[in-house]
Amino acid sequence: MPKNKVCRKSTCSVLQRKRLSRIVSSIASYPRNRLQIDIESGHTTRRNMETRALKNPYADYDGSPACTQYLFDPHGKLTAEFAGRLSSKISELLSHMEHGLKSADPRDCSGYTGWTGIALLYLHLSNVFGETSFLQRALDYVSRSLQCLTRRWVTFLCGDAGPLAVAAVVYYRLQRRQEADECLSRLLQLHRSVVMGKGSLPDELLYGRIGYLSSLVFINQQFEEEKIPMQYMQQICEAILASGEHLSKKRRYQEKTPLLYEWYQEYYVGAAHGLTGIYYFLMQPGFGVGEERLLRLVKPSVDYVCQLKFPSGNFPPCIGDSRDLLVHWCHGSPGVIYMLLQAHKVYGEERYFVDALQCGEVIWQRGLLKKGYGLCHGAAGNAYGFLALYKHTRDPKHLYRACKFAEWCMDYGKHGCRTPDTPFSLFEGMAGTIYFLTDLLQPLRSKFPAFEM
Ligand SMILES: [Zn+2]
Question: Using an 8 Å Cβ cutoff, are 43 and 325 in contact?
Fold first, then answer.
């Protein structure tokens, strides 16, 4: 079995990829059939497919007032009791997280597993609760990030754009304008290399152009003004379109999809590394893709992804992968849903919305993952799919489901889930769960961090 097949099923970051490839090389002398069994344990067998998620123990929304009245009112405003439960859980988990972070990797600056992710959580807490003590914590953590930048990667989640963007916002909030401007200027210095694509820069979210673009979007969201002129976003989208057209032609895929993207020689589909994350950004208004290319290039590419849907309503991690296994934000319906809802907004065709609703069903059935409570591949990240549906429809069913997933998250650690490699980080661990519980306090303003617009 090729290494990449192992990695793509079980992971979404280069770090994990390296770890896995080390494991694979260390057992390379095994007989092939034995190797197959070892690698596949926990990954590909039918039995294991069923044990990737825990059975959803909650009754589904039934439309009755009794079903939701202890959670939120008819306008979607959380009850004081439920909001109080969320807030006290947030405090409790925060103190666990602070304790746990004492043994975290001091040199990891990233938003995904490192200090920028923790800083982003505190910035979020300060935005929602309005407490300056949280802003001070954000400053402490992002300052650590600035001291150990990768000087290699350029994205929000895994590169230097995240630390610079979060620091710019934190300094700005603290009235330290000069430091904020310095961070912004350093962030924009990366722009040229992103557009030019030095060193075969990919296009996906975690390590590629979209991941840099998301940091510029973050700045404008947080400053609530067009601090970064849209032409910066437009130039990146031009480069992404050119890259996608080029690869589609090179691989003779034009008949199927006018745009095509790869990461580590795979055509990933999910939000973190793949096509749907890229198309979600290309369909945003103001990014200069324009009506003609939205119809000629993006729409048929979105439609090609739609054809990859499994009978269950879930989506594969890669083109050509027929195993319906993963229900994560990084791979599968919980990440694809954002592209579908955006396609529904942009093109107005009902079928995108129908597919998005089906993603919601998949998440409800199979979204309480054994991998834990995190954002990237955990229950909290999956619950954001319900919030996206709720914001799109205002149907209380989706808010109800998000609340039930929050109840699951509030029983953190009681379901026998696996402990992630970075158990307190934003994208794999407890910080992400806290981020989600905080977002649920204001469902209509919620956004999957570093991704959703
Ligand atoms: Zn993941």
Answer: yes
Expressed in angstroms and rounded, the spacing between residue 36 Cα and the centre of ligand 1 is 23
Which amino acid type is present at position 273?
H
Distance separating alpha carbons of residues 77 and 366, to the nearest angstrom: 27
> Is residue 109 annotated as involved in ligand binding?
no
How remote is the CA of residue 328 from the centroid of ligand 1, in Å? 6
Q: What is the DSSP letter of 450?
A: T
CA gap 229, 76 in Å, rounded: 35
Interval between CA 262 and ligand 1 midpoint (Å): 17
The encoded tokens of residue 140 equal 């402490």
398 in a known ligand binding site: no
Ramachandran quadrant class, 320 (left: phi over 0; alpha: psi -120 to 50; beta: rest): left
**Helix H or strand E encompassing 346:** helix 333-347
Separation of alpha carbons 328 and 46, rounded Å? 18
Cα(417) to ligand 1 centroid in Å equals: 15
- Token code pair at residue 176: 């330290």
pTM for the complete prediction?
A: 0.91
> What whole-number distance in Å separates Cα of residue 320 and Cα of residue 300?
18
- Residues 189-216 have pLDDT tens digits of 999 999 998 668 999 999 999 999 999 9
Gap from CA of 111 to ligand 1 centroid (Å): 14
> How far away, in angstroms, is 370 Cα from ligand 1 center?
13
Q: CB within 8 A of 414, min separation 6: which ones?
A: none
Return the pLDDT at 7: 33
pLDDT (tens digit, 9 = 90+) per residue, 241-280? 999 999 999 999 999 999 999 999 999 999 999 999 999 9
